[in-house]
Amino acid sequence: MELRQLRYFVAIVDHGSLSRAARVLHIVQPALTQQIQQLEEELGASLLHRSAQGMQATDAGKIFYEHALAILKQIADAKSAVAQSTDKPTGTVALGIPQSASGALAFPLLTAVRAAYPDIVFQLTEELTGNLTEQLASGRLNLAILFDDGQLGKFHTKTLVEEQMMYITRANSQFACKRKSITLDKVLQSPLILPSIQHGVRPRIEQVVRAQGKQIENVIDITSIAILKSAILADMGATILPISPFFAEIQRGEMCATPISDVTLSRTVSLCASKNIPLTNAAMAVERLVLDVSRDLCESGRWLGAKSLAEMKPVKSCSPSN
């Protein structure tokens, strides 16, 4: 198996066409076809099939595609690590962030990276926590923001913040609490709209509820934070989440957040890296920025309901511009 075969295969899947991939790769189509046939013979599996939409990966091809991307990225990172200097890091850094944390951290971090390290190609991916864990382990991501559920031992981790989770409803909702705080029993009496189990926050909620000898009986599972917001605004129920994904709606008076008084419901947000794949200088520079930016957001009050747990001291030149 040759690296060029991996590049050829990825190009075909990305472009959905042998002819388009051949043009991008600057090779003739028969030669491209021959290389893919040799790759399939070596693997003993068909990787591509032709459909009305063009060339698409088979089930085996989809699995191989993920591995090919990870291998090609690690090779690119290795070349970048050898070539770059510590004073002016360059190269590509891929960071994954969960949907429920991106509202607070994504844009400030993107701004900070562009300002401090313009030569770094920064790839910011928003995904479900389960997908981020798989991509980080395989090497497709250099770094990932994950929620500490006690299962992060296979990664190098640096703690960022602790976020308080609250009872959130539509303003003037039939499920809204009229007091300054609400008990867990009252929360569980409402229909709850919660992220699905693939989100790192859901297992934490379930754990706390079970520890109180209770269970969530009336729940609507929604994977998308955007759809979850729509369901709350339609007054289909309430949710238990940190404030940050709903900051804009709360500011506009469309939603309200009430503390839960009799249990501690919070999540710990960590920055994670693989234990098996070393970070490039560029990735280490972004790692430092994530720590600095998260602290700055907490200290300035822009990350609502979050308390900084980062260990590194802030670097003024790395803070995002206001």
UniProtKB/TrEMBL annotation:
Parts forming coiled coils: none
Pfam families assigned: HTH_1 (PF00126), LysR_substrate (PF03466)
Top-level taxon of the source organism: Bacteria
Residues of the signal peptide: none
Claim: Ligase is one of the keywords in the record: no
InterPro entries xref list: LysR_HTH_N, LysR_subst-bd, WH-like_DNA-bd_sf, WH_DNA-bd_sf
Gene Ontology molecular function: DNA binding; DNA-binding transcription factor activity
Family per similarity comment: Belongs to the LysR transcriptional regulatory family.
Protein known as: LysR family transcriptional regulator
Organism: Undibacterium baiyunense
